[in-house]
Please model this.
Amino acid sequence: MTEITRDVVIVGAGAAGLTAANELRKAGLSVAVLEARDRVGGRLWTDVIDGAMLELGGQWVSPDQDALIETVADLGLETFSRYREGESVYVGPDGVAHRFTGEMFPVSADTERTIAEITERLDAMVAEIDPDRPWAHEKAAEWDAVSWDAWLRAQTDDDEAVRNLAFATGSAMLTKPTHSFSLLASLLMAASAGSYSHLVDADFILDKRVVGGLQQVPLLLAERLGDDVFLGQPVRTLEWDASTSSATGGGVTAVADGMTVRARHAILALAPVLYPRISFVPPLPRLQHQMHQHLSMGFVIKVHAVYETPFWRDKGLSGTAFSPYELSHEAYDNSNHGDERGTLVGFVSDRTADDLFRLSAEERKERILESLSHYYGEEAKSPVVYYESDWGTEEWTRGAYAASFDIGGLARYGEYLREPVGPIHFACSDIAGPGYQHVDGAIRMGRHAASEILTTRSETAESEPGA
Model:
């Protein structure tokens, strides 16, 4: 087995880990990045399926994501705007497709007024939330003890309004049933995007894409690290010195399948649900063990349907479509830059996704395409390429898009999410404030972990005799 020594060992070659590694390298520290998969990128993955380039994981860039925008520019990548010309489609409880323009979908005047009033209420609450410290709000425990669904239904008995309001953080973002996470978790999701209004605005949150796919970000970051990125190396054991504080390091030994890395510090740059895959010697403190049991991944099927042409545009449709009553609760024009073919991307989440995976692959495809046809017409049933991104079966991900707390968990444990344990630091989108669950958050957390290590090393050097 190969054995090497570095200043910092980083577990996970996604955007967070690779960002941290590059920041540390720039500061003169040596690094080793160990990745379990045979590729870099984590939940960013651009692949060619049946001749079509598909972004199987994360893909969008919104205007508030400064860290991602800076990184994209630094890497010399180009972006393009998501196609959005024409009318959007909304399917209401009557099952009829209604075309519309503007931000508000076609609902009754009473439902529209209710949605507007509750959105205003939510924006005011979100404005009080620090996305880096939602647990610090004076009502954090109260808001974390009530489910998102229960809170909404306490505001109104208008079921259509509740379904549409709940959808933004439930099916669309946390990808869990709305009774299974708290009001506080929902407010954090909105605060991470700047406001609840931002979160429900598809033209804001799904603004641009990277030409050639967003996985180019980790691919190019990995290129800069060269031979310091090791693929196919799942870390099985992490030995760490529990006798020292995070300020002094203390040393770690990461044992992977084919190599051992001895280092002063470690960064775990992977989803918290995967921490239990590593044997810590000694065990992590009991607080961390408890906390990690209250975090779980959501679940969503990302559906890619490629057609000879973007036929919906000829009908005057933008491709933007959504409905809390449909199997595919939202869908968008996802055509690639410069590609004559048209691509639609649809999403099926939480319990609906569970139900679909009880069917055969052919039945599942038929049901999903039937749902898309309710938005776009019969042509949607005949793609030339069809593919389902199923992150629930990914050995080193186990769900999508990210991990979130169960009811009560955020107020109880949130403040410890990013707290180092001895020489071990943490970085991933799942523990971000701004950019939570997004690549932007992963980059922010990578920078944060690197900064922690550089700061503690600097403080240690200054305190040493003769410094």
